[in-house]
Amino acid sequence: MTRVLSAKFGGFLTFGVIQAGVVSAPGQPTVKDLLELYNFRQTGPDTKVHGVIGNRIGHSKSPHLYNAAFKSVGFNGIYLPLLVDNVANFLKTFSSPDFVGYRSLDLNVAMRWILLLR
Fold first, then answer.
1. Is the pTM of this model over 0.90?
2. What is the pLDDT of residue 35?
3. Distance (Å, rounded) from C-alpha 44 to C-alpha 106?
């Protein structure tokens, strides 16, 4: 997430890998994903952040669908898959003033069941 959102928070560079699967740190996106999927060159302080949260999130197609839709209509937004184990902690952290800019979050199916069973 921090690599994809670095431009939103004032960063002037980020790290991406050339080849998928050959990473120097967990979660590093490819340069291709940064540029094409996450529209990195257009990300800035006014970019609205949306995402799907869950504990098994890597398979989600939502970022591909929403980011393509955002780009096609010229919406200044980004949609991220967010690995979350504890929804309460996540909401507490990301509702702080340091993370203003989140607009919407979706829950994956497993996370919905966890919340329903509590």
1. no
2. 94
3. 22
